[in-house]
Amino acid sequence: MGLLGNMKFRHRLAAVAVFVMTSFGIYLYLPAEVTQLELQSQHKRMLMGRSFGSQMKYASENAPDMCQLTRANHHANISSLDLYFNAEYNLKSDGEWELPMPSVDYRKVQNPKRLNVVLVPHSHNDPGWLKTVNEYFSDQTRHILNNMVNKLTQFPKMTFIWTETVYFSMWWNELDDAVKVHVRRLIRRGQLEITLGGWVMPDEASTHYVSVIDQLIEGHQWLWENLGVRPENSWSIDPFGYSGTMPYLWLSAGMSNMVIQRVHQAIKSSLIQQKALEFNWRQMWDAKGSTDIFCHIMPYMLYNIKYTCGPSPFACVHFDFRHIPGDFSESRAREITNETLHESAELLYNQYRSKSFNFRYNTILVPIGDDFRYDKEEEWDQQYENYEKLIQYMNSKSEWNINVQWGTLQDYFQLTKQEHTNQKLSGSSEEFPVLSGDFFPYSDRDSEYWTGYYSTRPFDKYFSRDVQSTLQAADMLNTLNYIFYRSWNLNSDLKFFQHSSFLQTARRALGLFMHHDAITGTSKEFVVEDYEQYLLRAYNSSQEVIKLTIQSLLSKGKVESPVVFRPETVRTTYNTLPQKQVIAVQGYGTTVAFFNPLAQARRQMVHLLVNSQFLDVLSYSHEIIPSQISPVWHKEEDATVSDDIFELTFLVEIQPFSILPFVLYKKNHQTVSAYSSTITVVNTEQLAVSALVNFKQNRPEPHRTKPITVDNKVIQLTFDARTGSLLQLLDMASGNVTELNLSFLFYKSQGSGAYLFYPSGQPTSLFPNIPVIRVSEGPLVTCVEISYQPYITHRVTLYHHPPHLTSAIFIENVLSMSTLKNKEVIMRLHTDINNRDLSFFTDQNGFQFIRRRTNPNQRVQANYFPMTSAVLLEDDVRRLTLLSAQPHGAASLDDGQLEVMLDRQLLFDDNRGMGEGVNDNKPTVSKFVIMVEHRSSPKWSSSHYSSLSLQAMSFNDMLQQPLLTYYTTIDSEVFFRSITPLATPLSCDLSIVSLRSLVTGNLNYNGTSVILHRRGYDCDFPQPDLQCQPSETELSFDNLFQEFSFSNIYETTLTHTVLKRPVNPKEILNISPMELMAFHVQF
């Protein structure tokens, strides 16, 4: 072990300290020029040598099935990309999109075919919008569900569907056991169907698939435990556009059919012409049809009765029989009497027949409901009694050949598929078409596109992604804590109960925010504040679990109380940005513990705020490692350096799912291991640096016109000295230059609101003044910070080590919209990449990529698309990848151009129901990574989907699952140990989406959710510095968790409500590219 290895810990520290002090004493007596030379030489040795740990590089041996995947095209006969580009955008005189209409008066048709009509009563309950979730529950939802039990019992023919589990669980907790038994009976009888069954009906533009799965598991687990229900059909009628990812998730969770509504009316028109409103929705990578799920699109504008009985809203309003004194209503319905029965039935019959014109088969779905309907007992009576009269009369008219019935979605899909089967047997069947892609953007009227909400209230969008990563890490640590305690023969029941309570609070709060009026930013301001309070509780609850488990695991269960670890980043209030804590570095040592939530090893630079510029960093292997001290600028001043807060940067090399401690030691002087940055300021005459601060300073350059260049020996960046714009990137090995021309601009609103993006023209530059530019350079990291006061602080970071980080540009913006009234701010890149036909790719929910194509015949707002985490711009040779830590709207409106909307301040409502503008803007952070990659050989692909390179995937992991940092100033050797639960890192393309302990209603352990995702990657880009194996070949539970034993393992549906098959721990898991596999594991 060597001399140091045989010493006790405190003796090793003393030896290291003596060595450092001796070195520093020699350093003091060297001549200045020799000292500087030797210092640089020492840094070079430390940076190039073993102090950085082993250089983990893997051969770029791509998996053949992955490369075939990325080179294929979609496998469907309808592509949404073609639909949007080729649709006829015809308008009616009232501004609504025109739909094909049947020219037949069906009342005069002789011997019509048999028509089945399924009436489905429903009530759409938003968990927050114009009221908070609790206000809606108290005022309306509780009454709807109480009425449901009473009236379905009173009317045994009547049916009802329900979707939002968050409300059902709130109501269930108030019920007597006798009522619960009755509810279960209604479900068994088929009168009540639970559809979709997630915690909420999620938005599909801004949500990340990790959070969508998490809220889906929470809802399905609750339903299975309390109702014995597994949803078979999805009902998602109110999200403002639909992602291609959700059908895959719904199918993986055990659903077979789905209903959607808010699709661009011009796209519906195209589908109607092809009789394709019902289709099998297939994933673009799927060549076999194994991902097909049957989808029904409602043909008309909305899901309320005015638009569901048939093509004429003026006719349909006569069949909404709700009449409550004091209610506003568009209804023109009258009570059905013997005198009005024939006339009303004939009018409704014609609407039903006209609606059937849109579909291949003679079975139609007629929803009867709207937002928060059936909250009054009278409505149940009014709707049921009047429709019953109509049903009996129409069914008795043999010449009409119609069968109208109450039903659920399950009834509708069974009838439709039975009719398809019957016709297939008779040889007259038409097969349902196959569609791939998505349904963005959404529009309900001429030029009024719902593309603003992609970027509305980005503070909350970033907040939710922050909560997602924190909760995901807390789940992992809670599970690790549970299984380690079992292996140590320690009882963890009480701790597990405590942790599970925190995590349930966090999970349900984040799940609530996935609602399509929450993460979208489309709720009233006081409701948004309520959501933010939920998010804050989720964040703090997750952090509570993390610090408890880190302390327990590092101390091997010996120190559970008092809790001495604290998070390095905190959120103190619901409406302010997260704040990095200033770590007090002690002479006896401050322990900083890092947790890696990835299933791959990572080598990453970390940035900490510390209270001393003189310190050493001791790694877990007892080496003093290189570090860099950089300035922290006073926010109130352009070029004033703090004299008591410093930024410390050093490299952390950490295994998957590991906890690794480092120790910071305060010193009285600069050490050879800590390098101080060199500071340069441009466009100001003042550089205020205290004499006590040890930074090298270049003379201020108030009138510089020469471009500013910085580099890390791999890439060189050039900035315009007068505007601060990032102009270009130079690949220093090849000499290739890529123009970037990064700028900030704003659109002026003409009719924008929380939902709509409706600009008045082309964007204008945001900054008329010359910004102050601050540059700090060192051997580990170089930062260029541009201060566009009072709007934006724009920080660009280059890393010099380790090698795999050196090819990327890291960007962080802090934007304040307080003085930007009725403006929509964008960050634009104008490159020299020749993206043919203005096409580019955006990701869908962080799961996959889809090609977008800008339509020059449409306005700007029609060419904006949701970007959940990334966008790709490419030509035959190069690809620019823009990765994002938070969702935005994105567009490519000109050759080589890419823009991302950062925030929106809107004075006025856009008449979509919210009733107010967006005026509650807060300072908001946005984080990006820019990469420019060169193909192995020139190639242009016309594929409708794409994937990240493996290198870009690793950067995206850094953004989505950041390294977590916790620290303590308590001096104790008991925390100086590492936790490494995985026997081996997973390959680059494999992700552990879930390592979450499931619980019963009493918060007892109920097994562990393990969800694996084999992510698609693009094989066309070389991967010179991979830190992981490209593809896994021998993955099994035995070689993944070698230290732990299993009671049983089952492959399951995505939400673990159906056991598919038992799995042997030694069995090799074969996961196809892009696919998810879910397991229920008992440790």
What labels would you give this structure?
1083 residues, 53 strands, six-stranded mixed β-sheet, alpha+beta, 7-stranded beta/alpha barrel, glycosidase, 20 helices, Glyco_hydro_38_N_sf, Immunoglobulin-like, Beta-galactosidase, Chain A, domain 5, disordered N terminus
Layout of strands and helices, then pairs:
Elements: H1 2-6, H2 9-28, H3 32-48, H4 64-71, E1 78-79, H5 80-86, E2 115-124, H6 133-154, E3 160-162, H7 165-172, H8 177-188, E4 192-194, H9 209-227, E5 233-236, H10 245-252, E6 257-260, H11 265-273, E7 278-281, E8 293-297, H12 313-316, H13 341-356, E9 363-371, H14 377-396, E10 402-406, H15 409-426, E11 434-436, E12 443-445, E13 448-449, H16 458-487, H17 493-513, H18 525-554, E14 566-567, E15 569-570, E16 579-580, E17 582-583, E18 590-595, E19 602-610, E20 615-618, E21 624-625, E22 627-633, E23 641-654, E24 659-666, E25 674-676, E26 678-682, E27 696-697, E28 708-711, E29 715-719, E30 726-731, E31 737-739, E32 742-748, E33 764-765, E34 772-777, E35 781-788, E36 792-799, E37 808-815, E38 823-830, E39 839-844, E40 848-853, E41 865-867, E42 870-874, E43 878-884, E44 888-891, E45 897-905, E46 924-934, E47 945-946, H19 950-960, E48 964-968, E49 990-999, E50 1005-1014, H20 1037-1040, E51 1048-1052, E52 1059-1062, E53 1076-1082
Parallel strand pairs: 1-11, 2-9, 2-10, 3-4, 5-6, 6-8, 7-11, 17-19, 22-25, 26-27
Antiparallel strand pairs: 7-8, 12-13, 14-48, 15-16, 18-24, 18-48, 19-23, 20-21, 20-24, 22-23, 26-34, 28-29, 29-30, 30-31, 32-33, 32-38, 34-35, 35-36, 36-37, 37-46, 38-45, 39-40, 39-42, 40-47, 41-44, 42-43, 43-46, 44-45, 49-50, 50-53, 51-52, 51-53
Helix pairs in contact: 6-7, 9-17, 13-14, 16-17, 16-18, 17-18
